[in-house]
Design a protein that fits this description.
About 25% of the residues lie in helices and about 35% in strands. It has 7 helices and 8 strands, in the order βαββαααααβββββα. The strands form 2 sheets. Strands 2, 3, 5, 6, 7 and 8 form a 6-stranded antiparallel β-sheet that branches. A two-stranded parallel sheet has the order 1-4. The longest helix has 11 residues.
Length: about 170
Amino acid sequence: MVIIRSHEEFESYLNKELGVSSWHTITQEQINNFADATLDHQWIHTDPERARKCSPFKATIAHGYLVLSLLPFFWKQIVDVQNILMEVNYGLEQLKFAQAVVVNSEVRCRVTLRSIINLRNITKATLFIQLEIKDQLKPAFTGNVLFLYHFINDMVSTIPSAGNGCHQ
């Protein structure tokens, strides 16, 4: 695991692979729970029998947004960003779903720091993400994920709450 404590440390990884997460198995229970949470109960996700008979995948598949929602889980396995007041999900760019994730597939995340800039003491990191599927050549998806990091050392002078116990 990579540990990052400042903008400068983060910047030293520019255009380098930060790491790869462990494998995670996508279960039918996880797919069903996601369907309940999002109210998306399309049969291709939630009806194993119908999917076996009627789907080109011959099994249920994970929702695209389910596998996308695993990014924070995977990111925390790859990098521990410390000394921050706040971390904000800022956006996605050029996200492309390339292949369906069939139930019981194992997936993992590979991350490279694509760009990093200092926006008035807020670090904007653009990470190139690939969600790999075990034993498959094509990833489930690729794209850029953007995070904003408010490092404590950079923020103490600009945010009143930074010096009053609001950080850990």
